[in-house]
Amino acid sequence: MSSPILVTGAGQRIGLAFALHCLEQRKPVIATYRTRRPAVDTLEQAGALCIHADFSTNDGIDSFIETLKAETDSLRAIIHNASDWLPESPASDPADVMAAMMQIHSMTPYRINLACRHLLENSDAGADIIHMTDYVVEKGSAKHIAYAASKAALSNLTLSFARLLSPRVKVNSIAPSLIMFNAGDGEAYREKTLKKSLLGIAPGEAAAVQTLDFLLDNPYITGRSIGLDGGRPLV
Ligand SMILES: NC(=O)c1ccc[n+]([C@@H]2O[C@H](COP(=O)([O-])OP(=O)(O)OC[C@H]3O[C@@H](n4cnc5c(N)ncnc54)[C@H](OP(=O)(O)O)[C@@H]3O)[C@@H](O)[C@H]2O)c1
Question: Helical H runs in the chain?
Fold first, then answer.
């Protein structure tokens, strides 16, 4: 059996689409979830090994790594998708917001990559790390300052891990802007946000899945960030 692809935060939306797509291609998947949503049952029925993981503490990361290593001694890829989008607000302590954002977007990938290096090196079909970052890495964000900084840290981890793990493991980022709206987003917000890119659409999970396939299949890209943003920097 081929080495599994690990997808973090696979209980919904883009992470779920990544995991289901890999399973459809008969690639084994290990998926992490924090909340047990109905989609986790769907993933299990499709053949994924689903592991509960809460990365908000270092103990949570340690416990996940221990469970993962008990399940497999090799990985074809790690897709760091798990994410939160906390804004700065009068109701929250900025120190807590920054700590939470750095924990999920920077500490978690950093520690999992270091701990799982040899699992990737054991893959006999090439190996990849893919960091899901964000377009705001280039531009900052007035309403999500800590989020943007933590995704910028993740983008920088791409460079360091590409150096460290070459040539056995390719390490790249996907930097999306709007892929899909959240359920509660109103019409005015949707209209305003769509106008922020040249292409003016919310392409949905399929665009992210195509980019994932591109990076997994390509033998000569490492240490790069692929902008998945409809031409947003040009508007
Ligand atoms: N959607 C977009 O338009 C867009 C735009 C730019 C960048 N991105 C990036 O693309 C990726 C996927 O986006 P998405 O919209 O599909 O994300 P999402 O809907 O917010 O899902 C992220 C998943 O990460 C999990 N997660 C969050 N904090 C966690 C923690 N501390 N420990 C363990 N799991 C945790 C969540 O678990 P729960 O199920 O428990 O909440 C959730 O299922 C993210 O990295 C995001 O930053 C997306």
Answer: 13-24, 38-45, 58-71, 94-102, 108-121, 136-139, 145-165, 187-194, 205-217
